[in-house]
Inverse folding.
């Protein structure tokens, strides 16, 4: 693996990004002070603000890779908040927000190779975006990400029940009160509808978009790096396998990281974010090898 260069200066950048409907975020960047040849566009987990991925971005920048961290609509620096009178779904995320952030990133480094990746739901939507735009990136990096299909989980009956209850609760309240129930942030009911549909059916589809996602995933041939955490009950191996199985043409590398790889932090769904050096090393090695 490529070692981090402690002497490499890191440029810290934040730029405003505005989608076509006026939704705005602050795009966080970390970039090496040397010429940039590779850029990773990073998608956070559901309900997680972009700033929490700065340790990962800094570890990658120290290895010569620039990182732009997307901000979810409704989270962190976003000027929108989910509520009874403010709703959106995967369509807005995939057709408005991601293209706006990606366009700003490309304008900064037009000559670099561009990669996309993400954590948890961010990895799923990075995958779907890649299927819809197969010429947009050079490859896909997944960390603690897999499909939410209920049949791929232990205690699958309870998981399946959650995919029925969550949309019902979101419609009742006007949004999913994730902060109160301990799952995600305060999420738009349209996002929860699309997420829960995949959880119930195992298929990717989105309200208001053509039902072509599964076919386009099957045609995607990008290289994929998938890193799973050993103690991550939210993404068991079967969940990751279900997601990767949708892309039979894509060459892939997979790693399972244990606590010993993460400075003895627990190798679960979120703890790795505080000690991401091993994750960054795998990503940098994968990018540098040309996959």
């Amino acid at each position: 693996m490529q070692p981090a260069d402690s002497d490499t200066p890191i440029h810290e950048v934040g730029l405003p990004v505005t989608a076509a409907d006026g939704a705005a975020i602050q795009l966080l960047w970390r970039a090496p002070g040397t010429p940039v040849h590779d850029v990773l566009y990073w998608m956070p987990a559901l309900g997680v603000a972009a700033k929490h991925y700065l340790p990962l971005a800094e570890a990658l920048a120290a290895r010569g890779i620039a990182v732009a961290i997307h901000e979810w609509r409704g989270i962190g620096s976003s000027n929108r908040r989910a509520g009874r009178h403010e709703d959106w779904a995967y369509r807005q995320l995939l057709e408005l927000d991601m293209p706006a952030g990606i366009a700003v990133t490309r304008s900064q480094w037009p000559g670099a190779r561009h990669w996309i990746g993400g954590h948890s739901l961010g990895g799923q939507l990075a995958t779907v975006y890649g299927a819809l735009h197969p010429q947009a990136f050079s490859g896909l990096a997944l960390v603690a990400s897999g499909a939410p299909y209920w049949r791929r989980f232990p205690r699958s009956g309870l998981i399946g029940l959650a995919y029925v209850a969550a949309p019902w609760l979101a419609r009742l309240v006007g949004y999913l009160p994730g902060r109160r129930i301990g799952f995600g942030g305060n999420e738009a009911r349209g996002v929860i509808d699309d997420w829960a549909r995949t959880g119930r059916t195992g298929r990717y589809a989105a309200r208001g978009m053509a039902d072509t996602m599964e076919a386009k995933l099957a045609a995607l041939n990008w290289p994929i790096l998938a890193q799973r955490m050993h103690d991550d009950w939210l993404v068991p191996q079967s969940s990751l396998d279900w997601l990767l199985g949708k892309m039979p043409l894509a060459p892939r590398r997979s790693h399972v990281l244990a606590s010993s790889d993460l400075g003895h932090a627990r190798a679960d769904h979120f703890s790795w974010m505080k000690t991401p050096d091993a994750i960054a090393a795998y990503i940098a090695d994968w990018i540098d090898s040309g996959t």
The first helix runs from residue 54 to 61.
